Automatic annotation (TrEMBL):
Pfam families: STAS. This is STAS domain-containing protein. Residues 15-115 form the STAS domain. InterPro entries: STAS_dom (IPR002645), STAS_dom_sf (IPR036513). Gene3D superfamilies: STAS domain (3.30.750.24). It comes from Solirubrobacter ginsenosidimutans. PROSITE patterns: STAS (PS50801). GO terms for molecular function: anti-sigma factor antagonist activity.
């Protein structure tokens, strides 16, 4: 993992929860994506990404989230984000379009429920 981000992964009710802290930018977006995808085995019911500890997100990070969402959608699995509305990454996602706003939840339990619907 890069020096500017940390990834922590666990499961709840067959949903992969991936918490990313630090920063996502062009230097680490592909590496983070590969590590998250490696956690999505055949038994996974979906993916929740917790960005609550993220201090910075650039366009590479936004594209990372879109690629993951598309991959999960192709497999018929749910995708959601946990992200506080007052965070800089939330503002970046809000500016990038309506799709990320539909994925975003304030709490992990709400995101988990959205994925399992």
């Amino acid at each position: 993992m890069s020096d500017i981000a940390s990834l922590f992964v666990w499961r709840r009710r067959r949903v992969v929860i991936a918490a990313i802290t630090g920063e996502i930018d062009i230097s680490n977006a592909r590496e983070l994506e590969a590590e998250i995808v490696a956690e999505l085995d055949a038994g996974a019911a979906g993916l929740v990404i917790d960005l609550g500890g993220l201090g910075f997100l650039d366009g590479s990070g936004v594209h990372l989230l879109y690629r993951l969402a598309d991959r999960l959608n192709e497999r018929g699995l749910g995708f959601a984000l946990v992200l506080p509305e007052d965070s800089p990454p939330y503002r970046v996602l809000a500016l990038s379009g309506t799709r990320p706003r539909a994925w975003t939840h304030a709490r992990e339990d709400d995101a988990l429920s959205a994925v399992l619907r």
